[in-house]
Amino acid sequence: MSLLIAGTMAFDAIETPFGKTDKIVGGSATYAAWSASQFTHTIKQISIIGGDFPEEEIAALKAKGVQFDGVEQIQDEKSFFWSGRYHMDMNTRDTLITDLNVLEKFNPQLPDSYQDCEFLMLGNLMPSLQTQIIQQLKNRPKLIIMDTMNFWMDIAMDDLKKTIGMVDLLMVNDGEARQLSGEYSLVKAAQKIMDMGPKFLIIKKGEHGALLFHANHVFFAPALPLEEVFDPTGAGDTFAGGFIGHLARTKDISYNNMKTAIIIGSAMASFVVEKFGAQRLKEISKEDIAKRLNQFVDLVNFDIDIE
Ligand code: AMP
Q: Is this prediction's pTM over 0.85?
């Protein structure tokens, strides 16, 4: 039984008020796999890359147990490329360039070895491709989680709504929840989005944490106040990888276990922002993660006496 992660494996060029990178490895599926690999070792990746994607990155992920049978490589083409610039508050960013490159040709074909999928993470990807992946699975996974982005809302809203109707849990940020629902209040937005199909919804609010909605329940997970946020790129995908990695490890998809998973996702996201790219995710140990989780517990733990 395994965790399937679909999404982009890409190059990014990032500008923040504090620094700038040339092309570095990124992509929604790259971050999600690095993060989830801290919790589970049967990860099967679905993506497409060009001949320019570094072999060392593939080897490093394989060494963490990530399987590549579902990753297509087109040698004489370029990988997906994204470039973004963060504003001073680091919570908002502008996309400068999105070059789909190989993504335009992507026609995912799931290998037979991927049919044992119990947990499916549809990372940020063209919605029609996310649907195609769900449709290729002969047995419905225990849990299907989906991430998306304003980019797809702008150019493929109908396809996106169709995919949203097929998943159990959707993850979006606050701006995207508002765009998708047409509601400013996040509570109203959440109800409208859950009416589109997903039983669970996570709304990410950057440095202000994340909200988990289910029926008429709502749970809040803070983000750890960090002295320095170096590069927020991939925080959402890293959050998603930690969230589903925990659920896949424990095989428990209850709302209560999702509360733990959202804290674990937040802890993983708090690491990735400390350096450019996925660098921090490659360095951290189980002990680092345990220590960080304790900081989250301390952050929200208090006694109260109400007469
Ligand atoms: P996040 O910061 O978690 O929203 O994710 C950033 C990552 O998403 C970057 O590494 C990009 O390569 C990737 N990305 C950016 N735009 C898209 C898009 N339209 N579709 C899929 N992946 C994207």
A: yes
The predicted model gives 109-122 an average pLDDT of 97
For residue 227, the model assigns a pLDDT of: 86
How is domain 2-300 classified at the CATH fold level? Answer: UDP-N-acetylmuramoyl-L-alanine:D-glutamate ligase (3.40.1190)
Shortest-distance atom of ligand 1 to CA 173: 4
What is the number of the ligand 1 atom nearest to the C-alpha of 126?
Answer: 20
Ligand 1 neighbours (beta carbon < 6 A): 8, 10, 12, 26-28, 82, 98, 124-125, 149, 151, 233-237
DSSP 12-54: EEEEETTEE-SSEEE-HHHHHHHHHTTT-S-EEEEEEEETTS-
State the distance from the centre of ligand 1 to the C-alpha of 216, rounded, in angstroms: 31
Is residue 167 within 8 A of residue 193, CB to CB? The reply is no
Average pLDDT over residues 175-194: 98
How many residues are present in the chain? 307
| H helix runs in the chain, sequence order | 28-36, 55-63, 127-136, 150-155, 157-164, 174-181, 186-195, 235-250, 255-272, 279-283, 286-300
